[in-house]
Amino acid sequence: MIDVAGNWQSVRDRVEAATRRAGRPPGAVTIVAVGKTQSAAAVAAAIDAGATDVGENYVQEAAAKMPLVGRPARWHLIGHLQRNKSARAVDLFDVIHTLDSVALGRTLAALATARQRVIRVLVEINLGAEASKSGVAPAALPALLRAFATVPVLVIDGLMAIPPPQRSAEAMRPFFRALRELRDAIAVDAAPNAPLRELSMGMSDDFEVAIEEGATLVRIGRAIFGERS
Q1: How does residue 228 score in pLDDT terms, banded at 50, 70 and 90?
Q2: 8 Å CB contact between 34 and 58
Q3: SS3 of 189, please?
């Protein structure tokens, strides 16, 4: 049996230690407990242990799991969002981490307008120019932000990235730093609906380095739940 509560405490302690080492204030980093392929009972155990935020990769899996979890949490979509699943995603999730095109943004904005609500998103950045991954090229980010500068129902809270695999956590540092520097550079001229306060980066093998480079959201699955089933 996986000790979800014990693992959660260990991860939280490591997050707090990395936050202190980086000279950042307590509470600067939120752990998103990633429940991909995990049972509703495992996710509920993480929430009982103290998790306030849960990440899911697939809309259908989250829709099946949420009623069974039955505990309050903020739900994040961290996997690629197909436009034909956008309406369901908007109804289910509090934050969508994977805005990766103007077309998807327009779909989300239309859904927000129809529902008379605000949708919070992060822009996914393809830092490694990987053809196999979705995401916006860093150079294309200004144009995407301009496209929604006068669309207040779409709030762009920050940036997200999944860098190319590396041999060590330390080797991920340049990618995490690049995302932070991109955010800092673009935030100077960002519209009011693009506060860009969040940096979603870092997972089980490298989240401490990500925190040292400015992560505000770390997406942790295996270190909390064990290997995926």
Answers
A1: low
A2: no
A3: coil
Would you tell me how many other CB atoms lie within 10 Å of the CB of residue 181?
Answer: 13
In angstroms, the CA 196 to CA 155 distance is 9
What is the C-alpha to C-alpha distance for residues 121 and 146, in angstroms, rounded to an integer?
15
Task: Mention every residue, 6+ apart, whose C-beta is less than 8 A from residue 167.
Answer: none
Strand partners, 161: 125
Q: Which stretch of DSSP H or E encloses residue 46?
A: helix 40-49
How big is the CA angle at 187 (ends 178 and 146), to the nearest 5 degrees?
A: 105
Confidence of residue 128 (pLDDT cuts 50, 70, 90): confident
Place of tokens 């779909």: 107
**Residue owning tokens 């405490």:** 9
Nearest to 191 by CA among 154, 139, 136: 154
Give first-to-last CA distance, the chain, whole Å.
13
pLDDT in tens, 34-74: 999 999 999 999 999 999 999 999 999 999 999 999 889 99
Enclosing H/E stretch for 64: helix 59-69
Model confidence at 229: pLDDT above 70: no
DSSP-derived secondary structure letter, 201: -
